[in-house]
Write a structure and sequence with these properties.
Layout: H1 3-34, E1 41-47, E2 67-68, H2 82-94, E3 99-104, H3 110-124, E4 130-135, H4 145-160, E5 169-170, E6 173-179, E7 192-196, E8 218-221, E9 225-226, E10 237-238, H5 246-256, E11 263-266, E12 281-282, H6 295-308, H7 311-339, H8 347-375, H9 402-411, H10 424-436, H11 443-473, H12 478-486, H13 500-515, H14 519-530, H15 541-549, H16 554-565, H17 567-579, H18 584-591, H19 597-606, H20 617-648, H21 650-672, H22 675-681, H23 687-696, H24 700-722
Parallel strand pairs: 1-3, 1-11, 3-4, 4-6, 6-7, 8-11
Antiparallel strand pairs: 2-12, 5-6, 9-10
Amino acid sequence: MQLMPIIHKKALLLLLLMLTIFWGISTYSYLSRYYQERDICVGIFYYAWYGEKRHWNDCEDNAVIDQPYTRYYQGYYSSLNETVVYSQLKLIEMANIDFLLVSWFYPGSYEDQATKLLFEVTRKNNLNVKIALMIEPIDDYDVNATKLEQIKTYIMENYVKPYKQHYFHWEGKPLLAFFVPLNPTRNDPEYSFKVIGEQPYADWPYWSVPPKITEDGVTSVLPRYDDSRLPRERKIVIDETYREELYNEQWRFILNNKDKLKLVLIATWNEYHERTMIEPHIDATADPEFYFPDYLYQKTCEYVKLLKEKPFPTVQFYSLPSLILLMFILYKSFQIIMHGNGNSGNKQVIQQMISIGLISRFLLIFIAFLSNTIFGLRTPFEGENLPDYNIPLLNLFARWDSGYYINIARNGYTVLSQWAFRPLFPLMLKSINFLFTAQDLPTPINLIIIGFFMNNVLYIISLLLFYRLSLKISPEEAFIFTLIFAIYPTSFIFSAVYPESLFMTLLLLSYYHLEEGKILFSSIFMFLAGLCRPEGFTASLIYLIKGVHKIEKRKIYGIAFSISLSSLPIFLIYSLIKTGSIFTPFEAEALWARTGIIEMILRIGKLQLNVNPGLSLPYLILNLPLFSMIITFLLYYYISMGSGLYFSEDFYRKIFPYIFHATLYIVFISFFVDYISIARLSLFAFPIIWIIAHKSSKNKTLLYNIIIINIVLLTFYTALHVNWYHVT
């Protein structure tokens, strides 16, 4: 028995043992706190008084300068619009907010009708959010005994009894709040009475700067206050542009005092007159450098998640398994790299491959730095979220979707749009961050640093795996195959805080084991790839394509197909558990505006390049040569195959299943993916590179031209990505 494999196995077992001990000790320290922590309730003030010529600039007292703006409804809405109400309640539910405290006036009022609609929509859609009423002072400032009894009876008969499951209870009784200066007697046998406001006799604060905690563990949080446009003698303006970070400071106070809290009240969902709303909206005075319509809503989702989460299940439980999984992926990769194809690794070739990979990464970083220095960052459009982190060089690779993966790694799935992304990559980020957290850096910066270095390591590994796989296809041309793969025009994404490096590593591991005849083992890596990117499930078709050619193994290919495809239903089941709907990922994907390739071609023909702000002329110019090259070489392959080369050359037979799958994949992304992303995603149709390199290897002039074209396209794609030039 060889000595080296024994040493490798012992070292791996020792490392696993050390990690297990470390995980066990840290988990035990959290467990003692986990069972002691109680759930904290979160409520939000909600206003149901909006409608046509109602509270939208209808009088001096109702001045509004901001405008609602969500993916579901835009502009001044009606509180009696069922679609709007459902969308609002769904957003509130997704934010993990427990109940609404609805501003209510008197029986038969507009607000009364709107409140009934709130309850009815909640009941009809079985939403996991409750509602309570807050009686506002109107007509007079005194709720006498007779009037109070009438109101109590009306609310009991119209709200509490008909909607038992949806009316919010506090201290064992239905909550009925009163806004100051209303001040009823507290000891009511049917209701839990609470007075809201800042007066000394108030039970709970409406808002307070700085925040304070009541004796019964209640506090409130406020994003901003601005009544300067209302006809009031004493005008108050607090954090008008959000640059003072009032909301962050108040939430930090809340998170630091979790042990003292039972209830947190958010002021407000939609009070547009005093401008305290967290509902997605276009803000008239916020600093445009960082503000976007979902800014306050997303922050609320993140902070509520942090408030409610318990350390053990949300961090510790998933860390060790995902770390072991990452180690397993790395172990299998190194095993193939060093001992693949039935022989020990050729150190000289491996060193050459690593050198090519490192040179391409240094070139990429230089291009990113140079383009950012020359062109700078473009000004964001209204509503765009373009966060820029203060990390030299590395921040250039945390762009676009990186923010979504970072937020999922930090807080899990908290908003609908995040469900368009798969969990494996953020899970890996979170696991490594747990082991190597730099305590003096904010979590997002940690995750960016981890993501950048992890992805570059995985890129080098992918390069070596691609070389090993290519040796099985055409040993004489494997080096050229890998060279072109290393400088593919959109290979910049392997260095970005994206899941592409992990996805490619898993895809190559799957294909390599498939070529080795280890079909079921291959399907495990394909299953993991499906948990990495939404397109992962399409790669499962390779088992069906292979099965057609090998009748004797159709059953095992069918099992492998089922295993690899199961990543999609598993994610959908997870969605059902977390959100109550199996369709949430599809709903999230439907939110993203797409300009498909057909629409793009039509616009080119009509010269309508600036009709849609999502249509980027630079990307259009770059995509044309890239896709011309892809289509040209695909046609070359099928023409060559039809002319008899399929039977005369082993190369064409070997790659047919992969090329056929790559063709289906290109068709799929052309019709169902935004054209700006198509170039990036075409990376995963990498068998086309085998055709390009195979043809180029026989013609040095063509090879040099292909290399030059790839490097030029890579330069421009990188510049566009790091400088936010998504739209021009």
